[in-house]
């Protein structure tokens, strides 16, 4: 865990086998991480709705919602899409790994999990999550500054938001991908800020 972290990272462990959940939880807690666990996919989604999660370790073969299903749902939700996901599986076919990547998983671990590999991947993905969170916070500050400057002039109040809205509408009309629409929105808000 990095010294620059202001809070203890929280890791979700979802596995339908209690012994494996306990094993992963114990390994991670020994390293100072906070661990919350779920015994199935529905439970994992409930945990995600209830608290901030920094990383999710999902068993692929769970009853009901599989790890693939949960991964896809996490990555399709704007509120949770930036949570790194590691699929933990006994499946070893290339097609299963490709499927997981297509659903948005950042990494895979094969069962039985190697302790050192698990901890190295967790540290790496948590570091990446920390940097992503810092960028999100910086964007929020920039937006607040830009809108605060704009609000001081009654003649231009709302101009940045309108420009962002029109830019995105034009981008949608042109069929631009989501990443470019996000860039247009950001550019509209920040275009006068220098």
3D structure, described in words:
The longest helix has 37 residues, at 115-151. It is elongated and about 65 Å long. The two termini are 36 Å apart. α4 (94-102) links the parallel β4 and β5. It folds into 2 domains: 10-133, Rossmann fold; 153-190, no CATH class. The protein is of the alpha/beta class and 194 residues long. The protein is built from 7 helices and 5 strands.
Topology:
Layout: E1 10-14, H1 18-30, E2 34-38, H2 41-50, E3 55-59, H3 67-76, E4 85-89, H4 94-102, E5 107-110, H5 115-151, H6 159-173, H7 178-190
Parallel strand pairs: 1-2, 1-3, 3-4, 4-5
Helix pairs in contact: 2-3, 6-7
What is this entry, summarized?
The protein is 55% helix and 12% strand. By secondary structure, the chain is α/β, with parallel strands linked by helices.
Q: Classify the fold: give the CATH topology of the largest domain.
A: Rossmann fold
* Helical residues, percent: 55-70%
Estimate what percentage of residues fall within beta strands. 5-15%
> Count of helical segments?
7
Q: Please, how many domains?
A: 2
Q: Which regions have little confidence, pLDDT < 50, spanning 5+ residues? A: 1-5
How do the strands of the widest beta sheet line up side by side? Answer: 2-1-3-4-5
Task: Look at the structure and give the mean pLDDT.
Answer: 82
Shape type: elongated
Order of helices and strands: EHEHEHEHEHHH
Top keywords for this entry?
194 residues, alpha/beta, Rossmann fold, 2 domains, 5-stranded parallel sheet, 55% helix, elongated, disordered N terminus
